[in-house]
Amino acid sequence: MKKENLVLLHSFPTNSILLSGYIEYLSDYFNVYFIDLPGFTKAAPPLERITFEGYCDFVQRKIKELNLDSYLVEGISFGFAIINHLNYDEKCKGIIAVEPFIGSGSLKINTMTKGFYSFLIQTICSLKLYSLFWGSQLLRKYLPKLMDYPPETMSIIFEQIDGRTFFETANIILKDYNMYQFHDLPYVLIANKYDRTVNFDYIYETLSQNIKRLLVMNTEIDHYPRDTSKAYFKKMVPEEIIQKITVFFSENSVHDLA
Question: What is the sign, positive or negative, of the torsion defined by CA atoms of 221, 222, 227, 229?
């Protein structure tokens, strides 16, 4: 059976290196085209001016350059906000949202904590203190507690991700940008009801109210998994889920419904 093309965009703050196990697993079922956002690996230079629209324009160009006959797009967390904001033609068959970030309202964070992080991040950005904090012992001490990443993963993050890109993107996430555009396409939601980072109920309600063709796949996947091996993702998103997703997109093809 011919594999469908899948354009995949990562979460914040990850990249193709940290998600290599997921890419390897999905490649058993799809032709995976992974897009690293600018500044998230050394191989992808950061944007001169880091904005949400700048990321969208970059990904839009990358998809156009792939020149695929047909494809699905998948966005993980912040990556979903970007792919959901793009323009698509008839070549796009559907969208997969993995633990999606849909504006700051979807974050599972209390007002006081959000206010503290917003103030801290905005201060760093406005005073351009990126290099002072990036990779610092202070950040190394508190960032793993927030994301529950092991030390080796944090080392990759600090080595590969540009500090200015990290803080400016965090600033984008903490602000309530308009990320609520939805398409007349079939969507699949892959999410953990007990996700500690995003609010499942908020996300489910938002998607179900705005999307006509929605398939919800519950999973126990961690938002920031400590284990990023192929075996872990195979366990969290098993073959039966992949098969249901494939059938769903096949049965809800835009061309078939026309």
Answer: positive
